[in-house]
Design brief:
The chain is 23% helix and 26% strand. The protein is built from 15 helices and 38 strands. Strands 1, 4, 5, 6, 8, 10, 11, 12 and 16 form a nine-stranded mixed β-sheet that branches. It has a seven-stranded antiparallel β-sheet with strand order 7-2-3-34-35-31-29, with no helix packed on it. Strands 30, 32, 33, 36, 37 and 38 form a six-stranded mixed β-sheet that branches. A hairpin with a 2-residue loop joins strand 21 and strand 22 (456-457). The longest helix is centred in the first third of the chain and has 27 residues, at 8-34. InterPro entries: Ceramidase_alk (IPR006823), NCDase_C_sf (IPR038445), NEUT/ALK_ceramidase_C (IPR031331), NEUT/ALK_ceramidase_N (IPR031329). Its cofactor is Zn(2+).
């Protein structure tokens, strides 16, 4: 590699970067030292304790652990275990319950989680985020499993531990670490701030207890709804290919895999969608779960509106179709989850990478352009803009799911089972063959991690495919973060280490060591809960290995799905061969080149235990920590103010008197910080679009803030001043008539020497007419 040279401007900018980084680290450390449990939980008034959550159904923990501090989840008010309802037992099938609940969190003054782009903060709402829960139990109620798909970037370890603790408080040993899977859809447009490991806390710019509580409450509520709604039913499975919705964003890495292996597959992405259809014994619809490998990054890193991206749009379409007469987000009975799978190297931006300055292709091993380098190489979706692309890709998934759902006829039958272990992923011995072994590594991120991907490039001049470090950046790393040990560098080869996170423990460990591995089975159907992002070939290898293990112990013809972003986040998992190329996904494989082999070995153990009915003999493994003192958000809570002579909700820019179908209605109000609404949930929506019904002389709500036709923008001013802009993109299906838009908000009042008060307010636009033609 040619030695990099720097201009005077670049050198000055790097100097500023180093100074800013040093100041940031110092501030974060200071914040950690001066903040405690009371500060972290002051918004909710919650306390914490050192006790561990109950995890019934498991054997005793192993004697040796690498992390001695046990979980310390939030104390909840003493609640007696909910009595189990009497279940009708004389039928063939499963007891099935479905539930959906809001888990949006705050939609302002918080980073969006996924792109790690500085300044990509939430500034409004496109769609609400939901937790979708599915509870399945055997007819006699003896065994049950829970699968939850959540519209968030990924499930954090802290989130899972707190959810399990609250379930245990309410249901006793019914819902446990082994039979509950929490999976994130991986939208990159959901709030951050719910993590405990330092890398993610820094990326979130602090831990937000406000958003954490909102998410935990929503996830638990969705499970509670599913629990209450359980009824006898049947499950059917179907499979089919979704064509034209994805590309491999690291095709040169994929080509590193053996030719003979690649020859077994027709594509460098997994096109197959696997779908479960859930109905009651009368054949009435209950819900669906589908798995399909695609990154929810149709909304790019210029977006500031919280939303569920393409997979969320697919759920929206299916639920709107099945829940006739319900507004989106209301408790319509049907629940449709489009869950994540082995999406690590899969992009929905199907036009592929092009140099945005010249238009030429940059589909090369370094994703770099001749002029401008990697920062110019960006992949685009099929639409006119990111909103359009999101809907196009989402509709493709919806249409295939609709087709598979209608023709699903193969019933899923058989007992339910679950197996789970906690594993120290930094110290797994991997047997490559009968005589040779290797080990996983302490975590580290490589140079190409900082390069980003064609879906969202990094902000610095790093390049994908970097296998040799740069002395300049190495010096900066060593001075600020510490020099990686020779052992760490040797373990991660050929990865040049940029962030030696496994050696960094202040204020808390920067990456997890203790990781969940988990499988649940429904008869001949198995869900593997993956704590990260598997690439296409990684997923194929794991599926094959788990299928072979089941078959070897008397369970042939198992259908195995990869469920991604489950239980704890550990970045990416590439194959050993892909790791050698060190593109973004490989540089983000934090436990080293043998990570995939370790997971395959661990999941084989779980599959064997289920097949041989020896799950009770599995060691539970070392418990993960639950840290108390976390870095508080860097953005302070300040009082909201209205302009002199104005009140919150006053109209600043009115609507026009008449609009045509296809136009955009826009109204601007005196606003207040919408993060207040994550604390005081007096209103369940920021907006409504209402139509006047002359026959009843009433206003009927036709849209809310969960509708894809509405957009809520928050514009932050100085000293607590702000505006709220509400848009309604009038759809072709809109009926002519008289409409109005309403705004619902909450303002923060902070008087001297008095406690903070959050007050609700609402406002209404003037009426306007919608006509079909101009």
């Amino acid at each position: 590699m040619a030695k990099r040279t720097f201009s005077m401007l670049e050198a000055f900018l790097v100097f500023l970067l180093v100074m800013m980084t040093g100041i940031t680290v110092a501030l974060l450390t200071l914040l950690f030292i001066t903040s405690g449990t009371v500060e972290n939980h002051k918004d909710s008034g919650l306390l914490t304790t050192q006790s561990s959550p109950a995890t019934e159904g498991s054997t005793a923990p192993q004697g040796s652990t690498t992390l001695a501090q046990g979980p310390t989840p939030t104390l909840v008010s003493p609640t007696p275990s909910t009595p189990e309802p009497t279940l009708f037992q004389n039928f063939s099938g499963y007891h099935i319950g479905v539930g959906r609940a809001d888990c949006t969190g705050q939609v302002a003054d918080i980073n969006l989680m996924g792109y790690s782009k500085t300044g990509q903060t939430a500034q409004g709402l496109l769609t609400r985020l939901y937790s979708r829960a599915f509870v399945m139990a055997e007819p006699d109620g003896s065994n049950r499993v829970v699968f939850v798909s959540i519209d968030i970037g990924m499930v954090s370890q802290r989130l899972r531990l707190e959810v399990l603790n609250r379930l245990q408080s309410k249901y006793g040993s019914l819902y446990r670490r082994d039979n509950v899977i929490l999976s994130g859809t991986h939208t990159h447009s959901a709030p951050a701030g719910y993590f405990q490991y330092t890398v993610f806390v820094i990326a979130s710019e602090g831990f937000s207890n406000r958003t954490f509580e909102y998410m935990v409450t929503g996830i638990v509520k969705s499970i509670e709804i599913a629990h209450r709604n359980m009824k006898p039913g049947k499950i059917f499975i179907n499979k089919g290919n979704v064509d034209g919705a994805q590309i491999n964003r690291s095709p040169s890495s994929y080509l590193q895999n053996p030719v003979s292996e690649r020859a077994r597959y027709s594509s460098n992405t997994d096109k197959e969608m696997v779908l479960l259809k859930l109905v009651d014994l009368n054949g009435d619809d209950l819900g669906l779960i589908s798995w399909f490998a695609i990154h929810p990054v149709s909304m790019n890193n210029s977006n500031h509106l919280v939303n569920s991206d393409n997979v969320g749009y697919a759920s929206y379409l299916f639920e709107q179709e099945k829940n006739k007469g319900y507004l989106p987000g209301e408790q319509g009975p049907y629940v449709a989850a489009f869950a994540s799978s082995n999406l690590g190297d899969v992009s929905p931006n199907i036009l592929g990478p092009h140099c945005i300055n010249t238009g030429e292709s940059c589909d090369n091993a370094n994703s770099s352009c001749p002029v401008g380098g990697p920062s110019m190489c960006i992949a685009m979706g099929p639409g006119e803009d990111m909103f359009d692309s999101t809907q196009i890709i989402g509709r493709m998934m919806y249409q295939k799911a609709k087709e598979l759902y209608a023709s699903a006829s193969q019933e899923v039958t058989g007992p339910l089972a679950a197996a789970h272990q906690w594993v120290n992923m930094t110290d797994v011995t991997v047997w490559l063959n009968s005589t040779h072994a290797a080990k996983t590594c302490k975590p580290a991120l490589g140079y190409s991690f900082a390069a980003g991907t064609i879906d969202g490039v990094g902000s610095l001049n790093f390049t994908q495919g970097t296998t040799v470090g740069d002395p300049f950046w190495d010096i900066i790393r060593d001075q600020i973060l510490g020099k990686p040990s020779e052992e760490l560098k040797e373990c991660h080869k050929p990865k040049p280490i940029l962030l030696p996170t496994g050696m960094m423990s202040k204020p808390h460990p920067w990456h997890p060591e203790i990781v969940d591995v988990q499988i649940i089975t429904l008869g001949s159907f198995a869900i593997t809960a993956i704590p990260g992002e598997f690439t296409t070939m990684s997923g194929r290898r794991l599926r094959q290995a788990v299928q072979e293990e089941f078959a070897a112990y008397g369970m042939p013809n198992m259908t195995v799905v990869i469920s991604g972003l489950c239980n704890v986040y550990t970045h990416y998992i590439t194959t050993y061969e892909e790791y050698q190329a060190q593109r973004y996904e490989a540089a983000s494989t934090i436990y080293g080149p043998h990570t995939l082999s370790a997971y395959i070995q661990l999941f084989r153990v779980l599959a064997k235990a289920i097949a041989t009915d020896t799950v009770a003999n599995l060691s539970r493994g070392p418990e993960p920590p639950f840290f108390q003192q976390l870095i508080t958000p860097l953005i302070p809570n300040i009082a909201d103010r209205a302009p002199i002579g104005k009140n919150f909700g006053d109209v600043l820019q009115p609507v026009k008197s008449t609009y045509t179908v296809g136009e955009v209605v826009e109204v601007i109000f005196v606003g207040a910080n919408p993060k207040n609404s994550a604390e005081n949930q007096t209103h369940q929506t920021f907006l409504t679009v209402e139509k006047y019904e002359a026959t009843s002389a009433t206003w009927q709500i036709v849209h809310n803030d969960a509708s894809w036709e509405t957009r809520f923008y928050w514009h932050k001013g100085l000293l607590g001043l702000s505006n709220a802009t509400i848009q309604w993109h009038i759809p072709d299906t809109a009926q002519p008539g008289i409409y109005r838009i309403r705004y619902f908000g909450h303002s923060r009042k902070q008087d001297l020497l008095k406690p903070t008060v959050i007050l609700s307010f609402e406002s209404t636009s003037s009426a306007f007419e919608v006509v079909t033609t101009s």
